[in-house]
Specification:
The structure is a homodimer.
Chain A (H helix, E strand, L loop, with lengths): L9 E7 L3 E7 L5 E8 L6 H18 L7 E8 L2 E3 L4 E5 L4 E4 L1 H8 L5 E5 H12 L8 E6 L3 E7 L2 E3 L30 H4 L1 H14 L14 H9 L3 H25 L3 E5 L1 H5 L3 H12 L2 H4 L3 E3 L7 H8 L3 H4 L1 H13 L1
Parallel strand pairs in A: 1-4, 4-8, 9-12, 12-13
Antiparallel strand pairs in A: 1-2, 2-3, 5-6, 6-7, 9-10, 10-11
Helix pairs in contact in A: 1-2, 3-11, 5-7, 6-7, 7-9
């Protein structure tokens, strides 16, 4: 890692999603100076996506009146299971990727500029930690409830990634062992109740089971949005689905609190943002279910950053301290033991 | 904190349990040089217990042919919820203590030597991290299955304590929302199935429910040991209780793995040690239940340290780095943000 090179020059953050690529060029004070975006176009294959990412980086840098030579590094937040050490995307179902060496591919498209890759929820957690709601906390969970449910953990003021980058993926906490089967193979993961896809799936189940109960929901036009709107208007079927979603999320959060005793949980993502009161309901369940001593200190909050959060966090990955804490800690540990 | 004073002199570790106080004086290489022990005698009150702890420290130091003046610090691992920042024992039901300023009380009994206090499971986790099975890992959970179930988390090679010292207390992960009520108020915590008290309680329930089913267990002589022995001899009632205990522990561990992606889980404590195969069975359930990518990397192990573990870990608390990581991290974070 070239620590010296991060002292000056631009940092570019790239948010790689299933449908969009967004790149933002920041100065060292993290002011956004230039932007670019494109469709991901995953069906065209890895090489085409990587080329488009490189184009977005070049465009964002040009929009910042700068050149690639002035870029200290490029950070990428990728949707999917990612090994930040090797810079590989291990599994990204919405991209159809498996074991893609994204860091090396993108670096070679960009004249071997420094590139760091991490999962998008870690990037967002880092953005909240440095520039968002997380600035006030040392220990928090960033959770995103969108199509699925994922997260990132900040502990002692730093990203905690776990052994293989899977830390904070709260979507597969089991809240009902007898519940519907999840894509992961287990039954009753919080994701099957509380994510966008889960809410639609449970509404479909409810419409099938509640034969004869009046509902404004139509099985052929089910969206998360439609379920939330129907619930707000008093639809009983939709109301039960949303209630169960918030309850399941609160139970998963209670489990997290009982295990990791965080100061805060920051709940972001499209589903949480779309439904007024969803976060609050989940927060109430958490407070009821978690150990009182731990529930009493944890705050449940919305995110502090808007649409740029993913790109901000990705750009922050290009800081030696954010990516090498493993190596640092081992050094420290040996020093202490000696 | 007086960092310089830890460079020489003895470190004394005190293990404060519900029935015994044990003190061990170590040199700077963590070689044990002197020992002392006493009954806790909690019913005599806080002052008497603190005095006895101080006597044990003086005796252990004398047994090491040394003097209190040569002691760099005294660390205490206390059974119960403990605030390591203030050195207070917040709640220890087996001592009958609430909000006891143990650090300050013990320091004043010991000519104001430096004292650090943490919960006993954090002390044991630290001992494993520096001198036991945890030396090979940066990220692991130390779990103890005894009368109750508790734990301590090591992340990035350091103790992670959480907002108020409650991190790693895995006993209150809910594995069956319809299960028996736990002392914490929730239903179906892993502790009601898999701890020593839980195993006895579930065996009692099973004997009541299984009216007519033959069992060698006697309701009036139920102990964890008796249940394990009966299960080994093929007793069906006992076998079901032990099977459920191992399964519940495995489910809780799977939850931990899905959230925190550790490299290892070290399972210690009297219950885990007493029952051959208990840890292995729980480990198998964990491997079946956790996300395959995370289950594939985690190792489930027994502890590397024996009876001294609590005292070793307590003595290790007297190292500036082990107790001030919070302050360090905040400094680092500000530095990175600037």
């Amino acid at each position: 890692m070239n620590a010296a090179s991060t002292g000056d020059g631009l940092r570019v953050g790239v948010d790689l999603g299933g449908t969009r690529i967004r790149a933002v060029a920041f100065d060292q004070a993290m002011e956004p100076l230039g932007r670019a975006a494109a469709s991901t176009g995953a069906p065209e294959g890895v090489a085409a996506v990587v080329q488009r990412m490189a184009e977005c980086v070049r465009e964002a840098v040009a929009a910042a009146d700068s050149h690639l030579d002035d870029v200290a590094g490029v950070g990428v937040g990728a949707a999917g299971l990612t090994d930040w050490r090797s810079g590989k995307v291990l599994l990204a179902s919405n991209l159809g990727w498996r074991d893609v060496p994204l860091r090396d591919l993108l670096a070679s498209e960009l004249d071997d500029v420094r590139v760091e890759v991490d999962k998008d929820t870690n990037a967002a957690a880092l953005a909240e930690a440095r520039l968002g709601q997380g600035r006030r906390f040392r220990d928090f969970l960033y959770l995103t409830a969108g199509t699925g449910i994922g997260g990132g953990e900040v502990m002692g003021g730093r990203l905690y990634r776990g052994a293989t980058g899977g830390a904070g993926d709260i979507g597969h906490v089991v809240v009902d062992p007898d519940g519907p089967r999840c894509g992961c193979g287990a039954h009753g993961c919080v994701e099957v109740f509380s994510s966008g896809e889960g809410i639609v799936g449970r509404a479909r189940d409810a419409l099938t089971a509640a034969d004869g109960v009046a509902s404004e929901l139509s099985p052929s036009e089910l969206t998360t949005e439609a379920v939330f709107r129907a619930a707000e208007r008093g639809d009983r079927v939709a109301g039960a689905v949303v209630g169960r979603a918030a309850e399941a999320l609160g139970m998963a959060l209670a489990m997290y609190v009982n295990l990791n005793n965080p100061e805060a949980i920051i709940v972001g993502g499209g589903v949480a943002q779309a439904a007024p009161g969803y976060r609050e309901r989940a927060g109430r369940v958490l407070k009821e279910r978690a150990l009182p001593a731990l529930a009493g200190v944890v705050q449940v909050l919305g995110p502090g950053l808007g649409d740029d959060a993913g790109a901000v966090g990705a750009a922050l990955l290009v800081s030696t301290d954010e990516v090498t804490n493993g190596a640092h800690s081992v050094t420290t540990r040996q020093g202490q033991t000696a």
